[in-house]
Design goal:
The chain is mainly α. It has 2 domains: 200 residues, no CATH class; 93 residues, Arc Repressor Mutant, subunit A (Orthogonal Bundle). 61% of the residues lie in helices and 1% in strands. The protein is built from 15 helices and 2 strands. It has a two-stranded antiparallel ribbon with strand order 1-2. α2 packs antiparallel against α6, α4 crosses α6 and α12 crosses α14. The termini are far apart.
């Protein structure tokens, strides 16, 4: 068992991963008891974070020209050749590379539901690793295995069950076992990442909506408190005033201080229908006195509370 992954994945995701590892070991005829059998290739390297525009066409060719059989057959050994007869190159132990900075970007893009940039990072990783054609089929498998491990890891850190995203295909092992070419592996890997992005984007939307409703509920529960303010709300939510202000504006379309005033005016108009003085109403909706209420009411409604009450009587 590979301790590198045991420590970062929960039981259900680790089980998926080990199925993949065992499948590749079996096809590569490695002995699981071998001391080196559980060691993945190193992950060195450093690179830019976007695919050059003029390389996108090459990516498709690179994937198509990767070793045609990656799901079975004889694997080349050191010094043997890999590739088509007319373009055979010597395999000298090349390993794939997954730079930590790109993996971090990939995880961040998926968690934010950013499909466009997720695809760009995947394209870049695939282009960098398959362009030369020097990776042996087993290394191609390890490459896509590690990409799937990255997906499992980020889902695990977000407390998302793989089965919630792929209810009809709960076993990611099939991604490798049923794929015959690198092109198919890549298509399936990208499809999984895209589906994860869609799921995470939906989760993010739901969280944002829940937070907006939580802020509105807090205002409704505390509009009568003359201490109600952006600072009070941010403290209750455990977030900074700047974040709460920009978040509420972005997702509700209203300035939060205006929303507080509008909520107070809504309740003030309701209370004006009752036999209460303006001073009493001011205290009930969070204003220090009737002067402050009158000023706010006229700003929002265009008339004073007294005029509003008179209009109510005329309409009865």
């Amino acid at each position: 068992m590979n301790s590198r992954y045991r420590s970062i994945l929960s039981g259900r995701h680790y089980a998926h991963l080990m199925k993949l590892v065992n499948f590749i070991r079996k096809e590569n005829k490695q002995d699981e008891s071998s001391p080196d059998g559980s060691t993945l290739p190193p992950l060195p390297g450093n690179t830019a974070d976007c695919m050059p525009a003029n390389r996108s066409d090459q990516l498709k060719r690179v994937i198509q020209e990767a070793p045609e059989s990656v799901a079975g057959g004889k694997f080349p050994q050191e010094g043997e050749t890999v590739g088509r007869d007319e373009e055979a190159v010597s395999f000298s132990g090349d390993c794939y590379r997954l730079p930590p900075d790109l993996l971090a970007q990939l995880a961040d893009r998926v968690k934010n539901g950013d499909r466009v940039h997720t695809e760009r990072v995947l394209d870049l990783l695939c282009h960098q690793n398959l362009e030369s054609g020097r990776l042996a089929p087993v290394m191609v498998k390890w490459f896509f295995l590690d990409l799937q491990c990255t997906l499992l890891k980020l889902l695990d850190s977000a407390h998302v069950d793989f089965r919630d995203i792929f209810p009809l295909d709960p076993d990611p092992v099939s991604m490798l076992t049923e794929a015959a070419t690198a092109e198919i592996l890549y298509a399936r890997t990208k499809a999984m990442y895209i589906k994860a992005c869609s799921f995470m984007r939906g989760e993010r939307t739901d969280r944002n909506e829940r937070m907006v409703q939580a802020i509105i509920r807090f205002i409704e529960e505390h509009y009568g408190d003359n201490k109600l303010s952006l600072s009070m709300i941010s403290e209750a939510m455990g977030l900074s005033p700047v974040y709460i202000s920009s978040f509420f504006k972005k997702y509700s379309g209203e300035n939060i201080t205006d929303f507080i005033m509008k909520t107070r005016m809504k309740h003030a108009k309701r209370l004006l229908e009752q036999n209460l003085t303006v001073q009493e109403i001011a205290a009930k909706v969070g204003y220090a006195n009737n002067i402050v209420l009158t000023r706010a009411f006229k700003r929002m409604e265009g008339i004073t509370p007294g005029s509003y009450r008179q209009n109510l009587k005329h309409t009865e």
